[in-house]
Design a protein that fits this description.
181 residues; alpha/beta; Spore Coat Polysaccharide Biosynthesis Protein SpsA, Chain A; seven-stranded mixed beta sheet; 5 helices; disordered C terminus
Length: 181
């Protein structure tokens, strides 16, 4: 099986980290993040899809090993080099555990087999946290969302929208990006 990595980026942006074992890397600049992910999934040649935000450093992971876990839908543990993001990730983990989603489910790293992605359906547009909505739909359809034993570093090196920036009560110079609620 081959892993296609799908990364929504803004025009002119790139992915700055190494990807070990990816069959292909699709940097998608089309439309919203949801649209970019969906178009990437349609274009992907691999049987496995890894949706990745462009500020996620996964250089410690050999992507060819992912299929050995035999997971249909999964995520990874997160850490961050940004204090506000660390607070958000901790809060999200507590909320997710309370509502029955796996600990650390955070959509910056989402692995799904292409056949299962097609059964679950595409990312919904105009939904805040479309990756979490996708995970909820997967659970409703009977999927268990597994967590890989890897740690993914959320580097906060990109200039796109983030929930941490959107809820920032003090403007720390980041500004508020396009957030659809």
């Amino acid at each position: 099986m081959a892993v296609s990595v799908i990364i929504p980026v803004r025009k002119g942006e790139d992915y700055a980290f190494s990807l070990n074992g990816a069959a292909e890397v699709l940097l998608m600049t089309d439309g919203t993040r949801s649209e970019a992910r969906n178009i990437g999934a349609e274009q992907a040649k691999g049987d496995e899809l890894l949706f990745l935000d462009n500020d996620m450093d996964i250089s410690n992971i050999n992507l060819q090993e992912l299929n050995s876990y035999n997971y249909a839908v999964s995520t990874a543990y997160f850490s961050s080099n940004d204090m506000l993001d660390t607070i958000f990730i901790t809060s999200a983990q507590n909320w997710q555990a309370a509502v029955g989603l796996p600990l650390s489910y955070y959509g910056g790293f989402m692995y799904v087999r292409k056949a299962d992605f097609n059964k679950i359906g595409p990312f919904k547009n105009n939904v805040f946290m479309e990756d979490i909505e996708f995970a909820n739909r997967a659970v409703v359809k009977g999927y268990h969302i597994n967590v890989f034993p890897y740690r993914v570093l959320h580097t906060r090196k990109f200039s796109g929208p983030s929930l941490a920036r959107a809820i920032d009560p003090i403007n720390l110079g980041w500004g508020i990006s396009e957030v659809t609620i």
